[in-house]
Amino acid sequence: MQSNLVIFKLQNYDDLILLIIIYMKYFYVVCLSGHNILKMSTRDLLSKHETVATFGGLEEKRCRHKTSFCPDRCRHGGTVAVFHVIKYLNYEKTGKYGDQKQEKFKFFVRPSDSVEISGLTPERRSVLESLKGGDHVLLSWNHDYVHTEGCSSPQRPITKLIKISKEDADEM
Ligand SMILES: [Zn+2]
User: Fold this and answer.
1) Where are the alpha helices (DSSP H) in 34-163?
2) How far is the CA of 157 from the centre of ligand 1 (A)?
3) Interval between CA 27 and ligand 1 midpoint (Å)
4) For FRET with 89, which of 114, 138, 159, 168 sits at 20 to 30 Å CA-CA?
5) Is the distance from CB of 58 to CB of 79 less than 8 angstroms?
6) Residue pLDDT, tens place only, 13-69
């Protein structure tokens, strides 16, 4: 009688774990698909960064194949644009968990990401494509916390990318 009870409890426990796994998978899928499909979302600004920076080139970031969503749906891999911050022109921390001032800023350059997520408008994309290592730019981005249909995640869309001369950068 007692062992039956234990087995019953264990089965229930397994069911619970199964439910949690299913829920997590659903949650993950919904969150991931949210990156590509336009849905109702709200955006909290946590910090605002306006900098003078130099372009550090493009890096290939690899997915390490550690989750069941790798490599197609995990968003771990891709091309990353790297910038080194020389100075801040403006910095605002508007949320408790907003990023501090950064010395380096990287962002993914994915054709599939919407402008809302990446901030990469066609104009900024063409500026990026024209950059060579060491070029000076005005680079701004926001650190947002985005809520989309029950999922919340940070996003750091760029809000400005303009090529400037070294002389202009020195005078700022
Ligand atoms: Zn991955």
Assistant:
1) 115-118, 122-130
2) 21
3) 17
4) 114
5) yes
6) 666 555 555 556 555 555 554 454 556 789 999 999 999 999 999 999 999 998 988
* Residue 113 CA to ligand 1 centre (angstroms): 16
C-alpha 67 to ligand 1 mean position (Å): 6
CA distance 90 to 159: 13
From ligand 1's centre to the CA of 57, what distance in Å?
23
Domain ranges of the chain: 1-33, 41-171
CA of 55 relative to ligand 1 center, distance in Å: 26
Q: Which pTM value belongs to this model?
A: 0.75
Q: Separation of 47 CA from ligand 1 center, angstroms?
A: 28
Which residues of 5-131 form beta strands (DSSP E)? 41-61, 78-93, 104-108
* CA–CA dist 115, 90 (Å, integer): 23
Long-range contacts of 126-132 (CB under 8 A, 24+ apart): 127/161, 127/162, 127/163, 128/81, 128/161, 130/163, 131/55, 131/163, 132/55
Q: Report the distance separating Cα 55 and Cα 38, nearest Å.
A: 31
Segment 117-139, tens digit of pLDDT: 999 999 999 999 999 999 999 99
